[in-house]
Every structure is written in structure tokens, then in C-alpha cells.
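Protocol step 6 of 9: fold each sequence in the batch and record its C-alpha cells directly after the sequence line. For illustration, a two-sequence batch is reproduced in full.

Sequence one:
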Amino acid sequence: MRPLLQRGDEGSTSRRLPARQRRRQFAMCAALLLAPMTLATTVAPSAMATPAAHYAQAPTLQPMNPSPVPGVRVERVDRFTDRHVALWIYSPSMDTSIQVQLLLARDYHAEPQWTFPALYLLDGLRARDDQNGWTLETDAIDFFRDKNVNVVLPVGGESSFYADWLEPNNDKKYMWETFLTKELPPILHNDWRVNDTKGVLGLSMGGTAAMFLPARNRGMFQFAGSLSGYLSTTSYGMQRAIKAAVFDAGGYNSDAMWGTPDNSLWKEHDPYLLARNLRGVSLYLSAGTGAQGAHDRAGFMPGIPDNSAGMALEVLSRLTTQNFASRLKDLKIPASVHFRNTGTHSWPYWQSELHAAWPQIASALNVDSVGLNRPVAPSVLDDPTCEVEGAIGELAQARGDLGVCLTDERTLRGGTKRQEFQYATAYWSPDTGAHMVKGEIEKVYSANTRDLGMPTTSETTTPDGRGSFNHFENGSVYWTQQHGARMVVDGFRDLWAAQGWESGPMGYPVSDVENTGDRKGRLQRFENAGIFATNRGGPQLVVGEIWRHYQELGRETGELGWPVSDEHVIGEGRFSEFANGNIYWSPETGAWAVLKGEIQDAWAETGHETGVLGYPVGDAHETPEGLRQNFQRGHIIVVDGEAEVVTG
């Protein structure tokens, strides 16, 4: 958290109490929470009740070479210096652009073939939207100037705890865990030469995330450091303290983050309860006591700083960090623990801890071995830490193709469940039951979860064996080797289903829903058809040979314009209506257009395809005599605006 800095304090501009009064109120709240405890230069680990240690949320397995997430894109790159850049990355999960600043490694430009480890530096509760606190408040830019590591500085995330929130709040759609662990890594790997070795160091709120992110995403980070972090979210008083803190720093409601205190998401993000998942990660912990230290101004009582809120927050940090350290010791998980006898919740101490932690960071990230080949770390599949039970367990047992579990069940919005396995992800809800999603279909689903809803089938092979599909509450995703995974939703899916899905005349989808060429509506293309829709009208189908000829004529931007009907059956033939004419097809003649005007009027007078002329056998074309269109048993020619029907 960064609520009460002695310098660089950045408060929210929302309508709240004046800053001094808010700080006094927050300090009083924290003090009330701590009233039963004794503040001294050493705080007994037993002073704060700890949550039951048997609960543990198993981690997500992180791929060594992460695949790009659909929809993620770099929108802009700003270069402050040759080694300090800012990326503006569109995040589909948050539906906004996120700034990420990079401090590039010492040899980044000198050794263009090398890849480099990365160190994430996470900010505090009052994270700003223009700069990361590490560059605003510390000497990080100068400190890393001679270090061979790419430093990753996410910008923004005020009060977010770098978590995926249950609900949007305060005009923010926070999905920080998804962004940091799934959307950002492919860009770092593919565009900025980051290798598979990563660390994360955070302060306060960022210190909490620096522990639960590696625990929930096993294998992603080889180093994790918490500086004055809150390393239990469910011990006595912490939920109330976090609720007060996020409201003070921006007016956020923690219920939108992890729900009410009885929601299991609080436990699923509690570093204390996730501690066993940190085995094998190099860990660094630090906290002060809140007593006046070298970087604090004296208060009205000896040893008590004038930064009263910073004192109270550091006591909270110290208590939870000591309990967390004790938990690691019980689990025989090694950690470097630095407990200061003084010091408040402020940046000068965190800068000093960054310097102190660097040798351990450098060792864990193999910084001295940059440019050399390193052995691949052992797979975490050798040590699964999760349980499979309930409806998802029955699904996994019945199918037998999900592989080992990588997480315990996680609670999602609305009480639904999600559990990740080696080869797929399983989902459950009371209405849909348990189903699995995997591979390319899962990538599309992950980017469109809110639109698609819960899966209603597991991945299933299509009857013709060409592809596979999942149905969802609000749509379907179909995959083929030729066309990839394509999402079909709303009226597009209803019309396709009425035609017989992929087994019908339309075939498989070859595109997602896209804008039409004239930007007046939406289109989805299939192997043998197209579906068009506008806000004013329902979907219209153009299929088969008529669809092929319509494309040859320029589709909606050509002479025919937009379709205005589905296909009509006329004997052995077919026709579709368009804004400026029709396309007719028969087995003998193929598909040809008859545009509105003199030729169409004259042909209508003969009885259309049932009359003396029969079906068209070509499109209208200019001749020396005039505009002519040929039919099975004659032609129509237009000269000086007059149409003449010629038979035989």
C-alpha cells in the first residue's frame, strides 16, 4: 500500500474527506484493530490469530513459451531513453490499454542475440496511472543501469492488489492477474527477449501479490520478494483493514475484489494459506515495526513517528509477515527474512530493501549467466499439489484425458467453479454441470468468457471428424485444422444451427463475426455461405453458388448491395434478393445476377425463369448495340433506355 507517504503521496481525486482527516481516520481504524496487541521492537508471532493452515490453493502451471492471447496487442511504444521504454498494451480482459514500462538490461543492445531474465516491480495501494512508484520514489532507474535484467514496471492498478476482481468497481475492470501472467508474458518473450527466468518484488499491496502470484501460477517466477506486504488476507482483522484501505485509496469496495468475507476467494489469494505452493521459489521477506527510524520525522512522543498511519500499516505488515515466515519454517521452505527494529510504511525503507535483496535476486535469476545456456528447471508435474473431487472429479475420471490437476477448484463469479488440468480446464455451474475446454477452443473462450458464458458441453469431435467444438450458454466455438477456432454467437448461431451446423450446406465457420466492408453491419463467413446482420434487421443468409457469385460481384459494396432475404426455392432452382437486384441459380445454368432496372422489368413481364427466356446464363454486359443479358432461350438488350426481348 502507498496510502501515507512522507513524500510523493498521491491521493484519489474522488469526493472524500480531506487528506489529513482521512489519514487520521484510517490510522485510528488500524489502531483499533491492533489494540489488543503490543507494539514493540519485536512483535510476537502469536500476537495475531492465523488462519487454518490446512487450506491451500494449488497453482496454475505456466508454459515455458507462452502463446499470444487473442486480442492482446501493443498499441504504442514510447522511448524515454535507449533503455527506458513504455509499452501501451491493449488488454482484452480489462478492455483498456495498460502502460508497462521496461528498464532494458545492460547488454540488451550490445548483444542482440541474447535473452534476459525479467524482474517485475509491483507498486503500492496508491499506484498512479502515469508512472510506477518505483521510478517515481526510488533510485531504481540508476540502480538497474548496470544490471543485466529486464525490469518490468506495470503502471496503474490503484487498490487492485494485482488480482482479478469479481466485478467492475469505480469505473475499473480489474483483471491484473490475467494481464500479468497470461497477456503480458508473450509480448515480453516475443518482442523484448525475455527468457523463462522471472522474479517479482512488490511493496505493501504489491508485496501481497508478489507472494500469491507465484503461488497461484507455479513455475512462472523463480524469485519472489515482499517488502512490507500483507501476507495474510484472512487472519483476524485483515479483511476489515483491507476493506478500509482500498476505500481510503480511491473509494474502492473490496467486495468487488474477492466478495464478502465468507467468499472463498479471500482464502484463494491468502499468501499464508498458499505458502506450500512456494516451495522451490527463492523468497525474500522484510518489514519494520512502525517505530521511528532513520527515515522518519519525530512525532509528539519519543520513538513514535509523526506518520501515524504509516506506523499502523507497518505493524500490520510486520505481524502478517512474521506469521508467514513462521509458516514457511514449519513447511521447511527456506526464505531470507529481514526484520528491522524500526521504520514505517514508506519508500526510503523499500529502496534500501531493494538494494539489500539484489544479490539474492541476481542469484535466483541467473543474472551472471545471461548469454549462456542454462539447464531446464524440473517440471512441476512431478509434484502435483491439488485435489480433484465433486462433479469436476467425476468428469476427469470419466474422460481420462485431462492429465494431472494443476489447481484446486477456484470459485468464480456467481458461485461457478473452475479447475485447471494438464491438458484442459474444467468448469462447473449448477445450471450447466461440469464440462472441459482445451486447446485452441480454450484460447478463444478465455478471451470471450463473458460473452459466451459457461460451457454446456465438453469438447466434442464433429461427426465428419474434421474438427471439434464446445457449446456454451451464449454461443459455440468450432475448430478445424484448416480454419482454426471460430466463435459463433447470437442470431448467427441460430441460423447456422437451423441449416444443420457444419453438416449442412454452409459448412464450417472460416471467420469470426466481423465488420462488413461498408461498416454498416456485421458478417460471419462460412465455407459455403455468409450471414449478414444489421442493428435494424435480423440475420440474412447467402449460401452456395449464389454466395460465391455474390462475392465475385463485390458483396455488400458491389452493385447488388446488401442481402434483403434468405434463399428462395423455385423448382429445381434458387434465388436470393438484394437491395439492387437478385441472384438466380439452377443446376444447368449456375448463378447469375439480374440487376434492378429495364432488364429485370422486361424479364419479369415474360414470367421470370418460368417464362419463354428461362434462367439467366450470364450477367449483364455492355455490347456495341447496348446493355445485354443472355438467358437460356434468348436475351434482353437495352438501347436508349428501352428493353427489347429477343427469343430463340
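Sequence two, same batch, same settings:
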Amino acid sequence: MSYDGVGPRAVMRSVAFLTAGALAVPLLTGCGSEDETSKPLAGQDIAPAARAQVTQGGTLRWAVDTVPETFNTFQSDADATTTRVAQAVLPSLYRIDENGRAQRNPAYLESAKVVDSEPRQVVLYKLNQQAVWSDGREIGAADFAAQWRALSGKDSAYWTARNAGYDRIEKIERGENDLEVRVTFARPYADWQSLFSPLYPKQVMGTPDSFNDGARRKLKVTAGPFVVKKVDRKNEQVRLARNPRWWGRPAKLSEIVLTAVPREKRAAALAAGKLDLAEIDPAAAQRIDKASAPKGAAGPRSVASGSSGAAEKSGAAEKKADDKPSKAGKAETTDASLGGFEVRRSLEPAYTQLALNGADGPLADERVRRAVARALDRTALAALVLKPLGLPAVPVGSHLALSGQDAYADGSGALGGQDTAEAQALLADAGWVVGGPIKEGTGEKAAGAEGEKSKDKKSDEKKEEKKEEKKEKEKEKDENEEDKNKNDDGTYIVGQDGKAPAEATGGKDLAQDGKQQLTHPHQGGAPGAYAPKGTAAPANAAAGALAKNGKALSLRFVLPSGPGSESLRQVASRISRMLAKVGIRTETVKVADDSYFKDHVASGSYDLALYSWPASAFPATDARPIYAKPQPAADGSLNVGQNYTRVGTDQVDQLFDQAISTLDEGEERDLIRKADTRIWAAAGSIPLYQRPQLTAARKNLANAGAFGFQTPVYEDMGFLEKGARPAAHPSGT
């Protein structure tokens, strides 16, 4: 599993349904007008074709990570494959479009609107009169009511993973006829469109036993373009077949076979003709590009790095391969078999962040967290990952949305862009100085740090670190050479458009818990993000260790060690060098993939960590648990929920509460943007880049590939008629 991917997937709706991406918005106070609409950084890449160009029939063989433990998306062990199956076989009243925004699904819903707001909010759903379950029964109020009761949180016998939104419902009843459903809320709920997607039949939701066990291994009753035909756990396959009772546009494919294939084995499975569609890593993408390119030409939209160093290494590898014709011949044969595929590229509706554990240790001090953030060149980090893939290398500007979505606005100005002098000044103000006395064995421990590793293990890790650092420095040198003749240095500093980000805060500091800590205003950031005027930056910070009270400043950077996380480790190496320039040292600790999140990130055994969050079309609901202020539990421990950085403020909680309770869409959007600026100012997590999405697809496969934000339209997928051609690749990718 790649931890450059979405980390805790199962806890977010985007894992399941209505999250398609990220939310994005213009800065609350500066970087654009209030009504400015952002666009996705990269369009979807699915080889779109009209249905008339797609042949009737055929089987699509699609690689997935797992055969799911459950087909109930509301259970804690639901995963991405649970979502994929649910999207194909169950009703979703709303689905996400290519801009990451929720749109009514006419196959199930003729209309839905708030018909009353006083004394209670009432939503009236008018269902498509043709919508029926696979057993012939009409979809109706009984299904809505059963799902509400199961997910309301009032009956602990239902083993639910989440109940957000359903806990605000007061009652559900039939309207004027069987096609109308009236939902009355006890408390106003802005994100009511997030509910009932997916919608399960009352046979699943009606009792605790059926909810807990009835949909784990099978789905008997469904209502989508496909049905679950067979679950073969021995061969790790889920077979979906065309639904004969489907009332919408008939599915083009006869079957979809979802097969669990490890990421590192997908290129071989594609070459062997066992798959038609698979998400892949950059190395596999490079092989496919090379195999599908005309002889003597570079692969289309090459994934390979443009650096001369990489080219020289590649040439050396090819020369070495020439000395071993048998192996080379076998590799060439395998890659030639990949010529029938192409790589479709977009950006996932998820972003990778640097998490800073603020529970204790040096990062408990907001000034140190801000210093870490100010040391980072986020544009360079985005370029490191995305530029070699031919994708837009633009850093993410919001914790709560991605570019293209209604809620997106670049709120990073509340913290400020990369600035070495400001970072050093913040550290000095926090008491970390160069050349201070260091007591042996008193270096600051990581928050929740584990016991000391053996000297041999540390030595081995150091050697490995040096190897990766050498490779990283070579790559950085090549990139710098490439950019040195440009007019700017590529540094991204929010606020240099001449607008004052301080407007967002009314001139007040955005410090944790709303207390003013620092009051030195500065162009490119909100007040509070800088050390007081006159604070001297430590001289030669990068050359000497910073210390305070006899303790050296060193942060424990925990990373997954698996083969799918090379990109993440490259990013970590670059971050460590950026921090070294301001005097912050890091100790890299690599851990097993299967323990990385559970035993380190979730438990708080780290100072710095990299992982990804999916973005949601409903951030007021879905993002609140991630940024809510941790609360003391009855046993004296800290209840952090999903806030693994342990950094939160009362102000952010209040803004989320206000956003979820207003029925004014514009007001909700503004409150979400305002919450994001305060999350930036607290510096618990630093968004870096939107995750790349690379999908290998058979060249004649239409309406499938790198979907970006959009919910896949399963009934339109299929293979092109002979002689038909899909539309061109989207621009910008």
C-alpha cells in the first residue's frame, strides 16, 4: 500500500461515495474575488466516447486492491472496493461531477429541495417513478426510514462507522404519494445532499442483525446498472453482471470483473492479458509509455524524469542489459505486450500533507510548527512528485477542498510562504538558539516516541538514508539547472499579489485557541505567523545545531518502508534538507507498511509524518472530525477522533458548527474558507500536493480511466466499435 495515497480511507465519505475530490476556493481575504470559480488542476482522462461508438457486450477486467471484507459502506472495515461495488449496484441520489461538486442523479431522483426551514428544516424528495430494487419492489420511504434508524446513532446494536447527518433527522414519512419522501430535521443540516448515497434496501438496514451481517459477504437486493453476480474469495474476484431490471440507459458491458492484484504485479498482469484497466505506479507507467510509443520516439506524455542524470542512468542500465540478452529479450517481450495499453493521467480527489504532532515535544509550541511550515518550499515539493508525470505541479492551498470545488480558496496566506529568515526568527523567539549547550542523551523525544533502536539498525538506516539523499540531491541539482534561466526561482509565496491576507482575520492573530501570540504583520501572511519585529534570526543556523535548555532540536520523521512508498520517501528527504537549512534536524525512522498508520500516526508515535486525506464535497460534515480540537476522555486520556496531529482550536470547531447549521450556501462556503485559514494558522498540517492518478487502460476502452473527481458512470463504460475513436486527451495533462 502506498502511503502517498489516501491514508485512513475508510473513515471518509470520499472513500465511499460522495467525495470526489477536493474542495477549492479563492482566498477569503485576498488572492481573488469572492465569486471567483476555480477549475480542477487536471481534467479527467477517460477516453470519452458517445454511447453509439461503444460496442454492446464484453467483459471489463479491472484491478482492485482487495476483495472487500464488507459490502456495507457504513461499516468500519469498508474500503475502496466496497465503494466501487456500491457505486455500480446501489442508488446514489447525488453523485460527483468532473469539478468535484454534487449533482442530482436523475436515474433515481426527479427533484429534491428544502420546502420548509421554520420551525423545522424539511426536505422533499421526488423519486424517479421507474426506480425499483432488483426484486421488483419500488424504492420508497420505507428504505429511507430504515437507513435513518440504522445510522442515527440511537441504537448501539447497529455497528456503524459514522452517523453524521442522520443524527440530525427527526422523522421520515411518505409524501402525497409513494414517490415522495419527506425528511424533517430536528436541527438544520447544510449538507443534506450527502445523505442516502448510497441507499441500501430496507432488507439490509431494517434490523441490527441484517445491518451487521446481511451485506458483509453478499448483496442480494440492489438497484443499479449492475448486480453482484458472484464473490469468489478463493480467486479474489467480484463479478458484476448487467442488471436486467435496470430502467436507465442500459449498461454497455455484459460484466465487470474486479480482481485483487497487488500494485507491484499489475504491469505483469496487464502484459499477460489478464487485465484491461488498472491503477499503476510511475515505473509501470513509464514502461507502458515506452511500449506504446512509435519506434525511435519517446513515450507519449513520458513519465520519465527530464533530468540528464536520470537519462544517463537509464542509458547505463540499457547497456548493462545488452550484456545479458536472455533477460533483456524477456523484458522486451513483456514490454511489447504492453503496447496495447496507454496511461491515462489525472489528479486524485485527495492530497498529501505533512502532519506535525502537536501533542508534546518541540512541536507543541505553535512557533516551532510555524517555523517548520515557513521552511518548506511547497511548490518544489509538488514539482518533485508531479512534474515528471506531466501533471500540473501546483501546491494545494486548502485543507478542506481542492481546486474546482465550491469551497476551495487558497488559505495558505494565513501562515505565509517559504521564508528562511522568518522560520529562523520564529525558532529564536521560541528559545531555540545556535550553539547552546547540549546535555548528552537529552535530545527532545518525539511525541509518543518508541524505545531506542539498536545501533546496528540505526547504522543500516543511516546508510539507506544517505543513498536516498544522494539520489535526491542529484535530482534536485538537475531541476535547478533546468530552472536557473527562468525569471523567478519557483518559490511560491502567498500574498504577493498586493492584497492583504490580514483582512481575513480583521487584523487579529490566528494563533491557537484565538490567543494573540505574535503581532508582526508581514506581506504574504496573516498577523501571528511571524516572530515579533526586531527578533534576530540565528546566524548560520543551517550549519549548527539548535538547542534549548540543554536539549537539541531534532524531530522524528516516521515513514513507511514498503516498495510502493519510494515517492513519499523522496519527498521526506527533500523536506529534511529544507528543515536543515533553518537549523531543524530530523531523524528518519522507517517502519513496516502495515504498522505505519495504526501504530505510529494514529497512536501519535511520531513528530513528522506524510499521509493523505481524501477531499469531500461536504467538508462541513466530513472534515470536522479531522480538525476538531481533541477533548479529554473520562479515563484521563485524550480523545483525538481523527485529528492525528492533536492540534485544534475552539475557533475552528465553532466555525464548523456554524457552517453545518446554515441553509445559506454562500454563508456555508464562507465559513468553511474562514475555518481553513485558521487551520493553516495553527500549523498542525501542511497540505503539499494533490495525489497523482495513473491508470493503465486498453486503448480501445472508452469512458474509463483516470476519473479525477467524477463518480464513474458504469453504464457508459465499454469497448469501442471497430474504427471508432475516443476524444483526445484532456489538455493540461
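Proceed to step 7 once all outputs are recorded. Observation for sequence two: The first strand starts at residue 59 and ends at 64.
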